[in-house]
Specification:
Oligomer: single chain
Distance between the termini: 50 Å
Number of strands: 14
Helix content: 25-40%
Shape: globular
Radius of gyration: 20 Å
Strand order of the largest sheet: 1-2-5-8-9-10-11-14
Length: about 400
């Protein structure tokens, strides 16, 4: 599929981008027969990009400093963003937590600040349906795809939500830009905040590819990442990110294979350019020590200078009190073990990738959430359990001392 569409700011969509045809696009919404499908994609193709090539160059330079050991990085925010929390006040509250936690990690050096924000509206799911009071319903896949209410109408996949996601993201990124300009307008290592999200929904991402300053960029976010379910070498997702100039990231779970990872890294980072590739380990506290070293070795053998982050949350999810939760002790344990693996391999432990709320939620066990019975007090996540700011600060302090 080739497209060349005039977009709203006078520039043109990048020609020649191949879409998902001929590649595997896992975890996609079921909405292509919806009467508003074509119009929704056309609206995205006609919209201005949300990021610029100049911003991406600035971020890649900062990531290169992290990859070289000269800085740390924090990437954090909601598991799944809500359309109801994209106003300026909500965004400022989230970035305040990001800055406060980054300061915990600073230890006298610069910290690059990246939010799971401004587009984190879609989620992969293990099963397409869930049972709600004996009724099978489509799983909630994030506000870009459907609603969280337990009804057939709310759970229907609706492509018009992509346009709403774009509009919400635009609002968020405007606030982030003002924050960056206010904090460090002339800093060569601008410490953010930058936007990132899981580039999951191909129908949303492909129409937002643009040509800017002689480069093809993904206009939806600064730092797109691919999850454990979409990072296969032959996937539409890898093909998409291999064709854009944005810095890109991969989540590496316990099923990650060293040979396959080497292949994907070569596709995404053919020039072995520091700042292009971020790798986020999410193995589980009990497995990271055994599973991570061969992956690190494969990346190093391939000549890549990647940023290495620990996501100590996704491999440590359990059920308690009828809900998903995570133990802060396990989260700390994995983060520390990951750091030690990287140091033993001669790699710089770049930082942490976390799901953290801007408020005092009670979704993970640990700290003041000292019992299962307390989980129900303020369990408000749309998807997976998040740390509250106090729990995240405890993690940061322990990790920096490890």
């Amino acid at each position: 599929m080739r497209r060349r569409a005039v977009i709203g700011d006078g520039t043109r969509a990048a020609p020649g981008l191949t879409g998902p045809e001929g590649t595997v696009a896992a975890q996609q919404p079921e909405w292509r027969t919806h009467p508003d499908y074509a119009a929704s994609r056309a609206a995205l193709a006609a919209a201005p990009a949300l990021v610029t090539a100049a911003e991406l160059t600035r971020l890649r330079r900062a990531l290169a400093v992290v990859a070289g050991g000269g800085a740390r990085m924090v990437q954090l925010g909601d598991c799944a963003e809500s359309f109801e929390e994209t106003g300026a006040d909500h965004v400022r509250a989230k970035t305040a937590v990001l800055h406060a936690l980054a300061d915990e990690l600073a230890d006298g050096g610069p910290v690059l600040r990246v939010g799971r924000i401004g587009g984190q509206f879609a989620k992969p799911r293990s099963r397409p349906f869930e049972d709600v009071d004996g009724v099978p319903l489509p799983a909630f896949r994030g506000h870009m795809v459907n609603g969280e209410a337990p009804s057939a109408r709310a759970r229907a996949h609706d492509p018009r939500r992509m346009v709403r996601a774009y509009e919400a993201s635009a609002e968020v990124l405007r606030v982030l830009a003002r924050d960056r300009d206010r904090r460090h307008p002339d800093d060569a290592l601008c410490d953010g905040p930058w936007a990132s999200h899981d580039a999951l929904v191909i129908d949303y991402e492909v129409p937002l590819v643009r040509a800017d300053a002689g480069q093809r960029i993904l206009g939806s976010t600064h730092l797109p990442w691919l999850g454990d379910r979409t990072r296969a070498p032959g996937s539409a997702h890898v093909r998409l990110l291999s064709q854009v100039a944005n810095p890109v990231a991969l989540k590496l779970g316990p099923t990650a294979d060293p040979a396959e990872l080497a292949e994907v890294c070569a596709l995404l980072d053919p020039d072995r350019a520091p700042g292009r590739l971020t790798l986020i380990a999410r193995m589980g506290a009990e497995r990271v020590t055994d599973l991570l070293p061969p992956l690190v070795a494969a990346v190093r053998a391939g000549g890549h200078r990647a940023v290495w982050l620990s996501d100590p949350m996704h491999g440590n999810t359990v059920r308690a009190g009828g809900v998903k939760t995570r133990h802060l002790s396990a989260i700390v344990d994995e983060a520390v073990r990951c750091r030690r693996v990287l140091e033993q391999a001669g790699e710089h432990p770049g930082g942490l990738h976390l799901e953290v709320a801007a408020s005092d939620v009670t979704e993970c066990l640990g700290g003041k959430v000292d019992g299962v019975e307390r989980l129900a007090e303020r369990y408000t996540t749309l998807c997976d359990p998040r740390l509250n700011p106090d729990q995240a600060a405890e993690l940061m302090r322990t990790w920096i001392r490890a």
